[in-house]
Amino acid sequence: MSADTLPTEESSLHSEVLNSLRTKIIEGQFNAGERIPERELCETLKISRTPLREAMKVLAAEGLIELLPNRGARVPVLTGQELSDLFDIMGGIESMAGRIACERITDAEVLEIETLHYEMYGHYMRRNLPEYFRCNQAIHSAIVDATRNRALASLHQSYSTRLQRARFAANQSNSYDRWAQAMREHETILDCLKRRDSAALGDVLFCHLRNKSRASDAIAQN
């Protein structure tokens, strides 16, 4: 093995560990306030603590975990008000993105979002929440990308990462009521995009995030 291949391999390992740990946190495999079990994860992922701790530094910067001085890391505990505030900020960002996107989005980009929408619907029908969530986030990101506004995209990415755990949890319900409501809202989002109705899209995206906030809060109280 040449020395030139080492950085690539290290980068690949870092990405693999980072993505694995991020997924576990977002999908609620660790409870709020729970310490990240470093030894257990090292054994499961067959890695040393160095790549795991490097990944945890990135996740701490993203707001998904908190680093504790000399005590590892834990999943942060957010109060209902803190979550509500974050969802309102995200609602404002996505509302603005929707309005701008309607002015700049291409027909090809709308088609890509429509394709994602129907892929997401298929996962919804099969009750495959992880894959549904992946498509869902891709749709929201695609709308932001269509604004061609780097500053807005950077701001959206920052808050989106912090809220992914709560957004994932918002669809977890025994009755699937919120999940079904979210699908109906996405039908409206797609319709507004097709019609380039900036005002309507801005409003529905803000309400969509507000409803996510309510669902997330309801689950946290159960």
- Principal-axis shape equals globular
What is the helical fraction, as a range of percent?
over 70%
Mean pLDDT: 88
User: What's the alpha carbon Rg, rounded to whole Å?
Assistant: 19 Å
| Category from helices, strands and their pairing | mainly alpha
Looking at this protein, list some descriptive labels.
76% helix; 222 residues; single chain; globular; 2 strands; two-stranded antiparallel sheet; disordered N terminus; mainly alpha
Question: Would you kindly provide a written description of the structure presented here, covering whatever features stand out?
Answer:
The protein is mainly alpha-helical and 222 residues long. The protein contains nine helices and two strands, in the order αααββαααααα. It has helices spanning 6-26, 38-45, 49-62, 80-104, 107-125, 129-145, 150-170, 177-195, 198-221, and strands spanning 66-68, 72-74. Strands 1-2 form a two-stranded antiparallel ribbon. It is globular. It starts with 5 loop residues before the first helix and ends with a helix. The model is unreliable at 1-6 (pLDDT under 50).
List the SSEs and their pairings.
Blueprint (H helix, E strand, L loop, with lengths): L5 H21 L11 H8 L3 H14 L3 E3 L3 E3 L5 H25 L2 H19 L3 H17 L4 H21 L6 H19 L2 H24 L1
Antiparallel strand pairs: 1-2
Helix pairs in contact: 1-3, 4-6, 4-7, 4-9, 5-6, 5-8, 6-7, 7-9, 8-9
